[in-house]
Design goal:
The chain has 111 residues and is mainly α. It has four helices and two strands; from the N terminus they run ββαααα. It has one domain.
């Protein structure tokens, strides 16, 4: 078992890693697709959405006191952010598609 005792509290490392994956899974699309984005507007939207998610996460962490139900809150933080994050990702994707379309038209026009 991977148990650690911190201040007389036993912590299970796999469960902590499971919760961290649930907390930060909305950041995975931003981290995965941001190197492929060529549009400055798309990069700006992805960066702003990531910063807002971080602010949302920190504000929830600071607002709620640690008690027995905080684990349930941590479980759904990533899900609560999806109604905002998904439209922002789609907006960034649409800006990227517009830039690719404009570049294609410009290349066709030059030939």
């Amino acid at each position: 078992m991977n148990l650690i005792a911190v201040e007389n509290v036993v912590v299970d490392i796999p469960s902590i890693l499971f919760f961290y994956c649930l907390e930060i899974f909305p950041l995975f699309p931003a981290l995965f697709f941001s190197p492929t984005l060529n549009s400055k507007a798309a990069l700006l939207i992805v960066m702003i959405s990531t910063i807002f998610y971080f602010i949302f996460f920190v504000s929830l962490y600071l607002y709620y006191s640690p008690d027995a139900q905080t684990g349930l809150l941590v479980l759904v933080v990533g899900i609560w952010s999806l109604p905002i994050m998904i439209p922002l990702w789609l907006l960034a994707f649409s800006f990227e598609c517009v830039k690719i379309h404009k570049e294609t038209i410009n290349n066709d026009y030059k030939q």
